Amino acid sequence: MTQPEAAIPPGDKPPGTWRPGQWRVGALGGFLLYLDWSWPFWALLGFFHENGWRWLALGCVGVIIHAFAQATAARGLGLGTGSITFSAFGGYLWLKDLEPLPFQMEPDQRRRYAAMIFAGPLSNLVIFVALQGISSVWSSPEILSDFGRINLCIGLVRLIPLYPLDGAKLIYSWGRSSVARERLHVTLATLATIAMAAALLVYGGTYLGPVMFVMGLNLIRDSLQTQAEIERRVYPSTSARGTACPGCGEHLPPISGPTDHYGTASPACWARYVALAAFLEEHGGGPFGGLVVDAYAVQHPGNDTLNINLSMGIHLVTLYGVLERGVDPEKAPWMRERAARRGSSYYRLSPPSFRATPKIGSILEAPESERPARIEHYVRGVWEAWATEYRRLLGKWYDQEVVAEH
What we know:
three-stranded antiparallel sheet; single chain
């Protein structure tokens, strides 16, 4: 079950789907379509070669097939929707619900991601093989042979292991890696692309040299943006107030250490939660003490995986039962158990902003006698952030998963 797509007014630029030098040209199948500044350079082919316009048209069709093969696979594999950007090196897919980098994904998610990425080159190679087979049996028009060769080129080029081409993404979806290796790979890919672009400019001839040089610059830009994305996702933003927790947004002095299972709490924020959990285990936290685990979990939501979606659904309907239906907080363990029996109703919800909600640190900063009141304030504040947008939906989940007998 997938969440219905929200309508996006024309001209809007949803976060993460747009970069400078891109223009939105429409939407298809739940994906926003963007045109990169480098795409028009292919039009020069029509002026500098006698068959240029035909090759240009066939190449555009091959790139569109490649991109929509990946988009179709993404939807079929439960990876969601997002945007497609057409640039000089083809179409690039961005999935709005797929936050982790390939080497941070869970094994099942990496397999689905790899299958989605490979669907693009595979579509081009299948077209090439099919047209070659047709040509060997029947006399086919020259345009079909050209279309087959262009698809072969697109498929093979996209399998080159240089960011942001598909080959590099496949490598890092096959097994665990590390941030350092990922950054090194992007750096080496960028240097190799600079060398390639310089060589093409010098030896590529009147037409091929300038055009391929521009394409090389485009690939360098995408490589650098990929490295910036690694830094943004792996290392939280910092300011004079400290490091921002990726989940709740609280700024705390940066520390080294473990984080939560979801990977959306900074080490400093997680350390505060662990300290509070130890306090609650020893002293209790009043009627709402047992709901801190639920509130903290939904204030630090993870990425779109089956396990995390199930966990988030359980915590949200537990909060709903206590705060909306008046269930005794002591029955929270019973509700979690009931909510986990099937879990078929749950799917990924876009998290609200937690900027104005209380933070876990506000409880620890209070004297012990005031902590039960702070805990209730924290739990209710986090719940209201979700309930403002999803109260009716979560009520439906509660009825289906907790109240209904299965």
